[in-house]
Design brief:
By secondary structure, the protein is α/β, with parallel strands linked by helices. The chain is built from three helices and seven strands; from the N terminus they run βααββββαββ.
Length: 154
Amino acid sequence: MEYMSQEGYDKLVAELQEMINVELPRVKDAIAEARDKGDLSENFEYHAAKREQGKLLSRISYKQKILENARVVDTSVLVSDTVGLLRKVEMTNLGNNAKMAYTIVNPHEANLKEGKISIKSPIADALLGKKVGDVVEAHVPSGVIKLRIDNITL
């Protein structure tokens, strides 16, 4: 089961529709055009288009499986006293006093540029279930960092 925000769900649905309604017909047209050029055994354009079709069908199948198992979380019933999925956590790195804020999301919604980290990331894993004022140690690739939770919001 994949728990996600309504925004993340809608984005996946839009990506899937784009692949099915725009990209797939474009690839099928490319295959038909390449097929019309004759001998398929030495037709590079045909084989490239077939490979692209295979990759696209695989991506479509993958997104469909994610959506089949997706459950949109109703944020109105979430409490913000502990760190969990879809909570925004403001914290301080005690090693260098740097302030940071991340929203903990489903791995399919993670985007560091938007301040969204995967619930399966080392930082989110260390923060889960903790409360404001708690100090946690996160085992990240560069070593161990100590974080103090300053605020939790929805």
